[in-house]
Amino acid sequence: MKFMKLGSKPDTFQTDGNCTRYVASDLATDVIVHVGDAKFYLHKFPLLSKCARLQKLVSSGNEGNGDEVKIADLPGGASAFEVCAKFCYGMTVTLNAYNIVTSRCAAEYLEMHETVEKGNLVYKVDVFLNSVIFRSWKDSIIVVQTTKSSSPLPEEVKIINQCIDAIASKASVHVSKVDWSYTYNRKKIAEENGNDPSWNGLRNRTVPNDWWVEDLCELDIDLFKRIIMTIKNKQMVSSEVIGEALKAYAYSKLPGSGKNVIQQNDLVKYRNILDTIVWLLPTEKGSVSCSFLLKLLKASISADSGETVKMELAKRIGRQLEEASVSDLLIRACDGEKTIYDVHVIKKILDEFVTQDENSVAEMENGCEIQEMIRPGILSEASKLMVAKLVDGYLVEIAKDPNLPLATFTGIAEIVSSYPRPAHDALYRAIDTYLKVHPGISKSERKKLCRLMDCKKLSAELCMHAVQNERLPLRVVVQVLFFEQVRASASSGSSTPDLPKAIKDLNCGSYGSSRSQTTNTDEDWDAVASSEELRALRGELAALRLGNGAMQESKMDRAAISKMKGLIMSKRIFSKIWSNKAENSGSDSSESLGSANHDEVKSTPTRKGRHSVS
Question: Which residue intervals define the domain NPH3 in the entry (predicted)?
Answer without folding.
Answer: 210-487
